[in-house]
Amino acid sequence: MGIVPACVAQVALDVPLDMAFDFRLPPGVSATPGTLVVVPFGRTQRVGVVVGLAAQSQVPEGRLRDVVRVVDDLAALDEQTLGLLSFCAQYYQRPLGEVLLTSLPPRLRQARRRRLRLPEPHAAPPHVIPDTAPTLTTEQADAVGRLRQHLGQFRASLLHGVTGSGKTEVYLQLIEAALALDKRALMLVPEIGLTPQLEGRVRARFPGERIALLHSQLGEGARAAEWVAAQSGSARIVLGTRLAALAPVPGLGLIVIDEEHDASYKQQDGLRYSARDVAIRRAQLAGVPVILGSATPSLESWANAAAGRYDLVSLTRRAMPDARLPRVSPVDTRADRPAEGLSNALLRALKDRVARGEQSLVFVNRRGFSPVLFCRACAWHAECTRCSANLVLHREDGRLRCHQCGLARPTPARCGQCGSPDLAPVGHGTQRLEEALHAALPGARIARVDRDAAARRGAVAATLAKLAAGSLDIVVGTQMLAKGHDFPRLTLVGIVDADAALYAADFRASERLFALLSQVAGRAGRAGTGGEVLIQTDFPGHPLYAAVAAHDYAGFAEACLAERRSASWPPYAHLAILRAESRDKALALAFLRTAARIARGLGSPVEVFDPVPAAVERRAGLERMQLLVRASSRQALQPFLARWREALDQRAERRVRWALDIDPLDT
Ligand code: ADP
Ligand code: ZN
Ligand code: ZN
């Protein structure tokens, strides 16, 4: 007997079932695992990925349908990418088909589409002004030297560099070293839409290279083209947001994860993956080094470095000659009471900067005019009818908006409860601060950067360009401005209203606040003009602010880690959350109670908590509940999750939607 030719393709499809479907391969048509095929699905057609081949099928002859065609303008997914995506499916407890298909750009998932034009190899865009590398500081040179030694093998390194220490320069030199070995580099950034500066720097340093840019704000056609440029290898540098962690890159030699602590690396729906963790696994599969860079590393990464699992490489000084870390001081708002959100101390400092022709950033992590509209007569306040959230007043268009579900309605003239016209906006958002600044500093050139401003196409880019060109004095913004930006003329940062986050319930709240404040503070004084940061607070002695002021990440991290250890929170434990939502709260709760009973019955060394409401208990009319499980190791958690999910999958929950969130960031 010779080898029976494979005539059945096992195809993974984007369906909520964890199984592959058999299709007959017509004579003369061949496929390998990873080949994209179009198959009939009910009365329509779908794109699927071949995951196996067989000589025969269990499906009766008469019911076995034919593969419609092989997608032939696209190469098959390579073995390494398939391996990575299977790992994701397993680890995050999602069907393989869903993971495979959602890793593709939307256009390439369509059964009917125009043929792709393959990119020309190494075609670089015109009009890039090339830029040469600066002379490295001693610390940078040491870092590059150490990290370069890992090329050609798997090694995870944590590049802990204070803001402005020149981490990007280190990445660029390592990318160059990888390219010199004829390897490709994958660089992940948290939000590319907000870091055009970085894209520009990479392009300027590698003017001859085709760089594939992957993020969700690209149009469908462009996104498919960039993905193909990565997959075909015509781009030797792949730069993108979390979804780029899943894109195929042949001949990979290096992975860089910039701002590795950033929460936007975690996807919050569907495949709830951490692009950082997936990228580390990917480096391991590919046998290449991965560099995690941050001024404020996640505690997970810091603990990994402390335990010797990651190499720790530090940059302790700013790179530009004479640049120092900014001076950070609290403004005691119990004594210096802010009017319209601004203390006298901050106003004075702003005036000084405007007079000197320097720039300032006023940071408030809340968009809109004010977060609450309050009735002074009866204490009623405007709430969303569909969410457990207050409606935020937006003055620009006179509307109340829900930041959870997007509901918008006209601002009422009278109280919804007692009819009094005495309604007062309470608290300060970006719009209100912008208005207050205009009033207090007439003539100053002021702009705002937040998600509302970003809704106007190109508006944020225009503001950033003005800031870079020096034609703005003050910018008011949310955390969109916290990351990565490098504005040499910016010497003052004012932080308004950070106190609320000091006492949040989530065990990660202080880690997050420290990172955010350090990042925002890090925007000041990057070019040696002496930066200053003023934090308005009712708690000027709070240890978190003291740590920010001392630029003492390490001390802060040690203290947090000690707390985590004694409370058995990550990184000293591993978590998963079963999230459930339903129109009917009782149903969600009943589902989670059953799930908890099943979990406890599995006899795994896993701690099962009781169901509790989610942080935002109701959103868009859905009641949201969650159930936390905790284990001392991944090795204990993973098999438990697989069995738990299998048991849950067998229950037909009609009016409850549920999902597992592995290594959740919001607990
Ligand atoms: P980070 O990413 O660590 O916050 P950047 O890479 O943005 O820091 O560098 C901060 C600033 O220092 C940038 O303006 C950059 O051009 C500059 N810079 C970096 N390395 C050097 C160097 N070796 N010499 C002079 N300037 C440098
Ligand atoms: Zn009232
Ligand atoms: Zn709402």
Describe this protein's structure.
With 667 residues, the chain is of the alpha/beta class. The protein folds into 4 domains: 8-109, 3-Layer(aba) Sandwich (GIY-YIG endonuclease); 138-315, Rossmann fold, CATH 3.40.50.300; 327-370 and 427-563, P-loop containing nucleotide triphosphate hydrolases (Rossmann fold, 3-Layer(aba) Sandwich); 574-662, Alpha-Beta Plaits (2-Layer Sandwich). The protein is built from 17 helices and 28 strands. The strands form 6 sheets. Strands 8-9-7-10-11-6-12 form a 7-stranded parallel beta sheet, with helices on both faces. Helix 1 (79-91) crosses helix 2 and helix 13 packs parallel to helix 14. The chain is globular, with a radius of gyration of 27 Å. The chain starts with 7 loop residues before the first strand and ends in a 5-residue tail after the last strand. The model has no long low-confidence stretch (mean pLDDT 93). The chain binds adenosine-5'-diphosphate and zinc ion (2 copies). The site of one zinc ion has 8 residues, from loops. The site of one zinc ion (ZN) has 8 residues, from loops.
